[in-house]
Amino acid sequence: MQSPLAVFRAWLQALRSGRPRPVWAHTLAGSESADGKGFQASLELASQGIIVLDADWKIVALNSQAQTLIHSSGASLPGMEFWEAVPDLVAENHRSLSEQALQGGFSHAFVVHDSFEDQWIEYGLRPHACGIVVNLRDVSDTRQALLLLQGSELCNQSLFDGNTQAMWLLDADSRRVLALNKAAAAFYGLPVDTTALPKVEAFFPDGEAVRWLASLPGGDFQQQMRVCTQRKMNGELVLVELACSTVQWFERPAALVSVVDVGARHFADIQLHQLNDTLEQRIAQCGTDLHRSRQELHTFTQAMSEYLKAPLHVVSGFAAVLAERYSVALDEQGRHYLARIRVSTRQLAKLIDDLRTLAHLPGVMLNPEPVDLAPLCHRLIEDWRKREPQRQLVLEIPQTLPMFGDKNLLVTAVDCLMENAWKFTAKKEQGWIKVALVAGASLGDRVLMVADNGAGFDAAYADKLFTAFQRLHSSADFPGGGLGLAIVKRVAERHGGAVWATTADNGGASFFMSLPQGGSRDFPPGRPKEN
């Protein structure tokens, strides 16, 4: 009987030469013959896992290293289909490509990762006269060591040949092509196993190779990148990005050139630039339209202020004269009508003022400064108490209410908030209004709160409170134009702040205006006032 080593050598020689299978190949599975045992012993001498398959991908024999690497019991494996023996993910991800390659007479290799064992296994499949040989080896150490071995010639060659990026090497002295990898051969349309390396000029349109070579710096240099045109072997011209850097190739100074087809990207960049130009034109047009609309709005509000308020003042003035001089001549119903006229003219005048304020807010140039709002609150309440001395109201307010913002806009917002609280506490026998500063959600924000025990509002409609002309109460119960809280919101937004409101089940409401307090740089840029 031949020794196991001789049997193994004969097996390898048969595989390499393509000769008919030895006798033991027909009786390997379950064979008790000396040749079968010798062949199995020969498999065990191998330093890597080996699985022998027949033409139908069924396992004929395997060694213990292979059993360990595929994590299966060897007793049940002979006779089993290979893809059923390996882990499910291996079969799912690599079966199709492997079978296609082997059917075409090509070898196929792939690497899989066993996450449970944190292990990388390389599968190498190649055809032979009797079927298929599968080599398995643990390449975990190789995976970890690749970065450390980049300086070695063997590793460089492996990386170069196996890189999916099209790459070729240029001799630093003679400026001739030293090597190109498979990806480059495929890119340029050269045979993968070509031994006749083309000249550099073959990759460039006429005359461009000389200019490109002249542009490369001498000696060692870091990566140089340039977009240029390349010519494939079939004459097709493509736009590429060439990245070139100096390396040592088998102790010879060389330049490593990587090729990236940027034709699609370049076309996308052109489209993007065209789109940007179109968008810029549209934005410019929108800006022009917006400016024109703002001017028209300003003209409208100015006209409304001038042409509506003048006759309104006349109506209000004559109504006041009637009330003063002729109220005795009027009956109760007439005096009621006259009072309604005076109230309506005041409301209309207030609505016109609010509309003008709301329209002018976007164009106001901000002039932020420290402002104490406490004196303003006291002055507003005192003025309203003079008009309605019968009102019973408790005002809770600290000695100071320091805020930072545009004084005129803050005065406008506080006027609206205080007037809102005064109005909705009108039907309370004992009303109260509380003004205070509370902590903001963001560090550096300051929040002004104006709370009251008035009518409150339905929390389901809280999002409508700060919308222009949105009212949650009848104007007969609480007169107003529905613009006060919209003005407050616009003032807060001009300062980069926010507004919100809360209500309680037993009535009352709290309104909040949050403003950044870090300085004028925190505010959105303003626009100059329009004349």
TrEMBL record:
Q: Which Pfam families match?
A: HATPase_c, HisKA, PAS_4, PAS_8
Q: What class of enzyme is it?
A: transferase
**InterPro entries documented for this protein:** BphY/WalK/GraS-like, HATPase_C_sf, HATPase_dom, His_kinase_dom, HisK_dim/P_dom, HisK_dim/P_sf, PAS, PAS-like_dom_sf
Name its species: Polaromonas eurypsychrophila
Query: Which CDD domains does its entry note?
Result: HisKA, PAS
**What is the protein named?**
histidine kinase
> For the Histidine kinase domain, which residue ranges apply?
303-519
Q: Which GO terms describe its biological process?
A: osmosensory signaling via phosphorelay pathway
